[in-house]
Amino acid sequence: MTIQTPCVRQCCLNDKDICIGCHRSLQDILDWHTVDDTNRRRILERAENRKQHQPILEFDANKLKHLKTL
């Protein structure tokens, strides 16, 4: 059984070329269709590790209010 793509259709790369939707690197995404299931598991493990260690983004509600008035 082939491991299915973890893509969640929220594709947008951050400044480190990591997808904010599935947490795969750009290279992982490009390689996905040509690697075997062993390497797909490795890709998924790296993506999960990135997801678990991503910084928590905080926002300033006052700045958000300011943006609404622009």
How is this structure best described in words?
The relative contact order is 0.13. This protein has helices at residues 26-31, 37-52, 61-69. The chain has three helices and no strands. The termini are far apart.
Topology (SSEs and partners):
Blueprint: H1 26-31, H2 37-52, H3 61-69
**CA-based gyration radius:** 16 Å
- In round numbers, the mean pLDDT is 86
**What separation lies between the terminal Cα atoms?**
52 Å
Compressed to H and E, one letter per element, the order equals: HHH
The rough form would be described as elongated
- What is the number of E strands? 0
- How much strand? under 5%
Helix content: 40-55%
- Structural class based on helices, strands and sheet pairing: mainly alpha
Count, helices: 3
**Largest sheet at a glance?**
none
- The parts where pLDDT drops under 50 for at least 5 residues are none
